[in-house]
């Protein structure tokens, strides 16, 4: 099988394994490396020190995986059909908003398993070859690689957008030493639209294609380990894990398609559960109910921290006040601080 035939077959196998699109890119990322280094120099990565720790491995694939000359980039849709609509949940201060990607099973293992199966099929055809699969698991410029592989363009909110499928999808990569033909890179189609910039609750998109993670609600609720800066708490609203506003407002998502992956279906009604019910979870319940979920990574303490802020922003009810007071003497100083802030909001009101 020649390289062109193999590339075509890889895309066919990828579709059979549940990927909505497969593309192939080279390893040249010089321009993207420059943007990355400028972003790091500006300190916009916040406490994500691992972004600096890996040096140029992120933008030079062969340094991360020696011998790499091509990247097979894949995408997989993740929005389940029939879930509570994002705007409806955000408009109800009593309910908790969880980023749509985290409603079901953690995508890392699922996609990595599919990529391994893809590698096995390639190996069965060509014999042993050099490869390594990645799904958000190593220093990889996945969006730039996906753009170069023709899967979409990087929008002004820095998410990847596909003109036929919007942006509600995960990305994964197979670094390989196979001399496959590369696909044509995608071109940008945001035009003059600035909806994502205008709607960002904390104005984290400081300029087109530039996000200051320190202001981003996804960073504040997931990556940040310490207290959430007071200046951003009101703007968080009822978002307890991540934020999707920039994607919800994007006009290209009218073309998004619901996933057929049952593992991405919401668990424990997380597409619109009440804040009080989630705040009432014990640590044992949290660990049991987030098993196999991306949410598990923030831990119980930050889970309560985030929900306390959302409860402080909710319309006041006796039930909310009672729930907060029940945690006022929590063993964690971090939780106590945010509960005290939330109670103060209701007392002031």
Report on this model:
The chain has 16 helices and 10 strands. By secondary structure, the protein is α+β, with helices and mostly antiparallel strands. It has a domain of 230 residues. The strands form 4 sheets. The protein has a 4-stranded antiparallel β-sheet, with helices on both faces. Strands 3-10 form a two-stranded parallel sheet. The longest helix is centred in the middle third of the chain and has 20 residues. The radius of gyration is 21 Å and the shape is elongated. It starts with a helix and ends with a helix. Its cofactor is [4Fe-4S] cluster; cob(II)alamin. Keywords: 4Fe-4S, Cobalamin, Cobalt, Cytoplasm, Iron, Iron-sulfur, Metal-binding, Oxidoreductase, Queuosine biosynthesis, tRNA processing.
Query: Per the principal axes of the C-alpha atoms, what is the gross shape?
Result: elongated
Give me the secondary-structure category: alpha+beta
How far the N terminus sits from the C terminus, by CA atoms, comes to 71 Å
Question: Which regions have little confidence, pLDDT < 50, spanning 5+ residues?
Answer: none
In percent, how much strand structure appears in the residues?
5-15%
The overall pLDDT average reads 97
| Whole-angstrom Rg | 21 Å
Helix content: 40-55%
Q: Count the helices. How many? A: 16
The strands making up the biggest β-sheet line up spatially as 1-2-7-4
What series of H and E elements makes up the topology? HEHHHEHEHEHEEEHEEHHEHHHHHH
The total of beta strands comes to 10
Largest sheet: 4 strands, antiparallel
């Amino acid at each position: 099988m020649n390289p062109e035939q193999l590339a075509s077959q890889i895309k066919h196998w990828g579709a059979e394994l549940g990927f909505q699109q497969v593309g192939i890119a080279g390893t040249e990322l010089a321009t993207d490396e420059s943007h990355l280094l400028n972003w790091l120099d500006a300190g916009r990565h916040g406490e994500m020190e691992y972004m600096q720790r890996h040096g140029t491995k992120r933008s030079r694939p062969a340094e991360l995986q020696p011998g790499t000359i091509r990247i097979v980039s894949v995408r997989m849709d993740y929005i389940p059909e029939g879930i509570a609509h994002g705007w409806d949940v955000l408009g109800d201060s009593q309910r908790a908003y969880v980023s749509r990607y985290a409603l079901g099973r953690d995508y890392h293992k699922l996609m990595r398993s599919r990529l391994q199966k893809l590698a096995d099929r390639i190996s069965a055809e060509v014999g042993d070859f050099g490869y390594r699969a990645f799904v958000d698991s190593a220093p990889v410029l996945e969006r730039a690689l996906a753009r170069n592989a023709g899967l979409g363009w990087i929008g002004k909110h820095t998410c990847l957008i596909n003109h036929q499928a919007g942006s509600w999808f995960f990305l994964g990569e197979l670094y390989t030493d196979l001399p496959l033909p590369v696909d044509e890179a995608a071109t940008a189609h945001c035009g003059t639209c600035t909806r994502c910039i205008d709607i960002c609750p904390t104005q984290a998109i400081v300029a087109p294609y530039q996000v200051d993670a320190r202001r981003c609600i996804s960073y504040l609720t997931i990556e940040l380990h310490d207290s959430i800066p007071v200046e951003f708490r009101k703007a968080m609203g009822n978002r307890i894990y991540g934020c999707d506003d920039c994607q919800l407002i994007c006009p290209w998502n009218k073309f998004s398609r619901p996933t057929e992956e049952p593992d991405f279906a919401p668990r424990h009604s997380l597409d619109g559960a009440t804040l009080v019910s989630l705040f009432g979870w014990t640590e044992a319940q949290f660990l049991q109910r987030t098993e196999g979920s991306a949410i598990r990574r923030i831990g119980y303490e930050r889970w309560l921290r985030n929900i306390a802020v959302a409860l402080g922003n909710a319309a006041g009810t006796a039930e909310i006040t009672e729930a907060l007071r029940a945690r006022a003497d929590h063993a964690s100083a971090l939780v106590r601080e945010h509960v005290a802030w939330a109670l103060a909001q209701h007392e002031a009101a």
